[in-house]
Design goal:
four-stranded antiparallel sheet, 13% strand
Amino acid sequence: LLEEMPAIQVVTLYRYLQYKAIQDDVDKWLFLEANENRKARLEEAERQLAEYRQRGDGMPFTAAIWWPQQEQSTRIREHTNFAALRTVEAMRMYAAAKGRWPDRLDEIAAVPVPVNPATGEAFGYRLEGGVAILRVRTSVSVDVNKEYRLTLRSATAGGPQKSE
């Protein structure tokens, strides 16, 4: 089959397949959680990508790879925001069952409470005068990006309420 192709097509196909293998190797680390050593693995993948470019592997395709830092940040933010909303819902379930907010997130047993994917640690949580405050960091280098402040309504008013 290769013998029937023009030489330029064989070379282009070979370089494209090299590129796809390199891109897959880089992309696989983007979905790791912070506690799975994502940062170190992404740094290693970036170093390896620079080596591939220097050697010419996957050329001309690897020259066009934009290291997806922004895409990575967006994915981490999305995963973190989703985990925060899951935590808020777990808190609301606890409040619906107990009539109060938990003192600590680890008191919630009805559903799993996720860790923050951006940091690999539990979300920041505290009670302040009957208001439950969930602190969300979407980056290890940023203290707090968002806070959820939740208050309980009276039982006749419809249960827990989320306010931001």
